[in-house]
Design goal:
The chain is α/β, with parallel strands linked by helices and about 350 residues long. It is built from eleven helices and eleven strands. Helices cover about 45% and strands about 15% of the residues. The chain has a six-stranded parallel β-sheet with strand order 8-7-9-10-6-11. The chain has a three-stranded antiparallel β-sheet with strand order 1-3-2, covered by helices on one side. Helix 2 runs parallel beside helix 4, helix 3 packs across helix 4 and helix 5 packs across helix 6.
C-alpha cells in the first residue's frame, strides 16, 4: 500500500469537489479499491501502486477540464475516469474563456471580436466606445485567458481616481476603502470569470493587482497583461506615464469613452491626445465600438442615442450663436453711408 498526495493548484476546490463534496463521492464510487481524503486543495489516496497511479492521472485530467471550463459535473467525471471524451461541452464560436459556473464568455459583436484579434497581434490596444459596449469586460476576459494559459504571470488593472460628480474622500476607512468604489467595476468583471476562492488567492498573492493609476509611477510591468480603464479621465502626463510602464512579455489594453470625460474643463483628456500622437506607431491597434455593440439592457442603447441627439442639437445651437455674434460684430464695423 502506498500513499499519493495530489495538489490541486489550477482550480477552485469548491468547484472541483462540488456542492457538499458531491463530486468527491462520485470519484470514490468509481475508485472502490482505494481510500480517498480531500481537504482544501490537497487530495490523498491510499492503495496499491497501479490503482493510485491511475487515480492521480485521472484527477489531473479532471483538474485540467475544470480549469478550462470552470465547472465539473457527474457526467464529465464518469466520462473522463472511464476513458471517454466528455460530450457535455460543445465548441463555441468566438469563445474567449469559460467564466464562473461554466458561463461562456465570447466576443458577442464584430467589434468585440476585433478587440480579441487586435490583442492577439499587438502589444498595445486602444478600445474606444460608449458605455455598455463590452470594452472592459472583453479586455479583462482576454487577460484572464492569458493568465490561465500561463502566457503571463500576472494581471494589473488600473483606473484614474476621478469622481463622476461626487466626492468620496469623506468616506471612512483606509486608503483601500476609499479607492475601492472607483475600482468596483473591475472586481465585478473578475468575479464573473474566476471562482471566489481562487480570485481571493490571486489577489492576496498579487497575481491579480488592482490599483489607482497614481500607484503605477516608477514601476516596470513585465510578464503581465495591463489594463487601463476609463482612460478618458487621465491627464496627458498620467497616460504617458502609464504607457511607458510597459515591460518585456507584456501587453496593454487602454479603454475609454470620449463622451464621458469627468476632468475639469481646463484639463485636456490624455486619451484624446495619446490617440492623436500614437496613431501611426507600429504595434499599436485601435478598435472603436459603437451603439450597436451595447450589450446591456436594450434601453441603454436608446439612452446613448438620445444623449447623442441632444449633444448634436446643443453643438449646432452653439455654432449658430457664434455665427450670429460674428455677423453682428462685422455689421458694427461697417461705416454708415454719407
Amino acid at each position: 500500500m502506498i500513499e499519493r498526495v495530489i495538489i490541486l493548484d489550477a482550480v477552485d476546490p469548491v468547484t472541483f469537489y462540488g456542492v457538499n463534496n458531491a463530486n468527491v463521492q462520485v470519484i470514490k464510487n468509481l475508485f472502490p479499491k482505494v481510500r480517498i481524503a480531500a481537504r482544501g486543495n490537497v487530495m490523498k489516496v491510499i492503495g496499491d501502486e497501479k490503482e493510485t497511479e491511475l487515480f492521480e492521472q485521472k484527477i489531473k485530467q479532471l483538474e485540467k477540464y475544470c480549469a478550462e471550463y470552470n465547472q465539473l459535473g457527474e457526467e464529465v467525471i464518469i466520462d473522463i475516469i472511464k476513458g471517454d471524451e466528455p460530450q457535455t461541452v460543445k465548441p463555441l464560436e468566438n469563445l474567449i474563456i469559460y467564466g464562473v459556473n461554466g458561463k461562456p464568455i465570447t466576443g458577442r459583436t464584430p467589434n468585440q471580436q476585433k478587440l480579441v484579434e487586435a490583442f492577439a497581434h499587438n502589444d498595445l490596444t486602444f478600445a474606444l466606445g460608449p458605455a455598455g459596449s463590452g470594452k472592459t469586460y472583453v479586455a479583462i476576459a482576454l487577460a484572464v485567458k492569458a493568465l490561465k494559459n500561463k502566457e503571463v504571470k500576472k494581471i494589473i488593472l488600473s483606473r484614474p481616481a476621478v469622481e463622476a460628480g461626487e466626492k468620496l474622500g469623506f468616506l471612512p476607512g483606509d486608503m483601500k476603502d476609499k479607492i475601492d468604489p472607483y475600482l468596483q467595476p473591475l472586481y465585478d468583471a473578475l468575479e464573473d470569470m474566476i471562482p471566489a476562492a481562487k480570485l481571493k488567492e490571486y489577489m492576496e498573492s498579487n497575481v491579480i493587482q488592482i490599483a489607482p493609476l497614481a500607484f503605477m509611477r516608477g514601476r516596470t510591468l513585465s510578464d503581465a497583461v495591463i489594463i487601463l480603464d476609463e482612460a478618458q479621465n487621465t491627464t496627458t502626463h498620467q497616460i504617458k506615464m502609464f504607457l511607458t510602464r510597459l515591460g518585456m512579455n507584456a501587453k496593454m489594453i487602454v479603454t475609454g469613452d470620449m463622451t464621458q470625460i469627468d476632468l475639469p474643463a481646463s484639463q485636456t483628456s490624455g486619451l484624446v491626445q495619446a490617440i492623436s500622437i500614437l496613431k501611426n506607431v507600429e504595434g499599436i491597434a485601435r478598435v472603436e465600438f459603437g451603439k450597436k455593440d451595447i450589450v446591456r439592457h436594450k434601453l441603454v442603447q436608446r439612452i446613448v442615442e438620445a444623449y447623442e441627439k441632444h449633444d448634436e442639437k446643443e453643438r449646432k445651437a452653439a455654432e449658430a450663436r457664434t455665427q450670429e455674434r460674428a455677423a453682428a460684430k462685422e455689421a458694427g464695423k461697417e461705416k454708415p453711408e454719407a
